[in-house]
What does this fold into?
Amino acid sequence: MDKRKTKLTMSQVMYPHQANLAGNVHGGEVMKLMDTTAAAVARRYARSNVVTARVDELQFHHPIFVGSLVTLTATIAYVGRTSMEVVVNVYIEDLESDTEPIRALSSYFTMVALDKDGVPKQVPPFVPETEEEIMLYNTIKERREALKKKSGK
Ligand SMILES: CC(C)(COP(=O)(O)OP(=O)(O)OC[C@H]1O[C@@H](n2cnc3c(N)ncnc32)[C@H](O)[C@@H]1OP(=O)(O)O)[C@@H](O)C(=O)NCCC(=O)NCCS
It folds into this structure.
């Protein structure tokens, strides 16, 4: 499998208009960036338009302040027939210090590929390769099956 198709990274410096008066970047601003990154990797994988169907396990581990460099990584970790589950992590880096980047947010985005008529369309199959990829794939598969059972679909 072509690894370039399942991973994508985007970086951006945070500015005052994205923050509150104390300098904390709004959660919604970062969530939008996460959604944008997930959509980009999914669009490239599907080679079509995609929409966000679901967001799971969104966690804010650390605050983000104005001036931080925010780097988002999006990795396709599971693919169904028309949907793709994307793991999104957000790392923050203080550009004026020697400290290592730390993970500030994480989440799972379910993106659905759509054809030109807006109907869900089939995407290429995904085969996890490394031990880590296989473990994550199986975890997501179990969660999706449990959700389907719960919703009666
Ligand atoms: C997402 C959407 C296209 C699904 O439409 P639908 O008629 O339910 O389509 P289907 O039942 O064929 O489901 C398509 C896929 O989406 C998945 N899906 C649909 N709703 C889901 C949900 N709430 N959570 C997780 N997956 C979901 C299905 O499991 C299926 O996956 P699979 O093909 O890999 O098995 C539709 O609900 C929609 O347009 N929602 C609004 C999306 C949106 O506007 N997002 C914000 C802006 S991008």
The first helix runs from residue 27 to 46. Residues 3-151 form a domain with the Thiol Ester Dehydrase; Chain A fold (CATH 3.10.129.10). Residues 51-54, 80-83, 110, 112, 120 surround coenzyme A (CB under 6 Å). The chain has one domain: 3-151.
